Amino acid sequence: MSYELWILFTGSLVGLSCGVIGCFLILRKMSMLADAISHTVLLGLVMAFIISQSMNGFYMLIGAAAAGLLTTFIVQLLNSSGIQEDASIGVVFTSLFALGVILISLFAKNVHLDVEHALMGEIAFVPWNTLSLPFLGPIPKSVVMLGSILIIDVTVILLLFKEFKLTSFDPDMAAAIGIPVLVIHYILMGLVSVTTVSAFDSVGAILVVAMLIAPGATAYLLTDRYKVMLLLSGGIGIFDSVAGYYGAKIFDVSISGAMAVAAGIVFFIVWMVSPKYGLISKFLNQRRLTGQ
């Protein structure tokens, strides 16, 4: 594929994987936890490097998953002790992220791991960092990583489809029929963590947060059906990435930033024109009721 197609493919993989996983965060009203995890995985990356002295992707995934689960566990612990969830997320998010920044400055000064890179990323460099696969030839490492994580995400969602659905809509009923709600919760957070870190190197945390929240929130405005929402969210994530790339090309700006902006613009448009939850439809319905 050409240089441009690799970038589009990478962005589409990010939009698809983050969009599908983000649906569960939207349904569970845990959107801001995505922001927290996308930043606290930095601590996991640093710890993985300190322990292994390697930037190998496998170690990075293990570290990121551990940091995501640690974030979720501490937030859950604080929330169950009576502290409001938003306050718990704020305290854990800032503390663990700051600890990651400090550890970088102390132990990882001379490696390709820094705060600016983790936050912003640079998808334009993706096609140049390749590895050779049998029968396929040279393929960008980010594409291999993102594709592998997408397969894992889809496989786990299909295997635990009923459990994810019940624990998202009615956790009390799920617990009553014997589903281990907390275990399912941590499995989901693990998926969020590894999905986040798979996109870190190429697009940065800012776009990851946008793709974890905006496509799912947009799909939520368009349908009340669980399966349709998952499919729509993935499709919207792909559209946001493609539209953002061409917007960046036209205006000569950051590709990741343009993709995040495109996700916001699409959400705003849908919020205005959604047939059921849109601002315009609500206004017209109110006028109709007032007229009666």
Automatic annotation (TrEMBL):
InterPro entries: ABC_BtuC-like, ABC_TroCD. It is a multi-pass membrane protein. The chain crosses the membrane at residues 6-27, 32-51, 57-75, 87-108, 143-161, 173-197, 203-222, 229-248, 254-273. It holds the Pfam family ABC-3. Keywords: Cell membrane, Membrane, Transmembrane, Transmembrane helix, Transport. It comes from the Bacteria. The keyword Transmembrane helix applies. It is found in: Cell membrane. CDD domains: TM_ABC_iron-siderophores_like. PANTHER family: ABC-TRANSPORTER METAL-BINDING PROTEIN, METAL TRANSPORT SYSTEM MEMBRANE PROTEIN CT_070-RELATED. Belongs to the ABC-3 integral membrane protein family. This is Metal ABC transporter permease. The lineage of its organism: Bacteria, Bacillati, Bacillota, Bacilli, Bacillales.
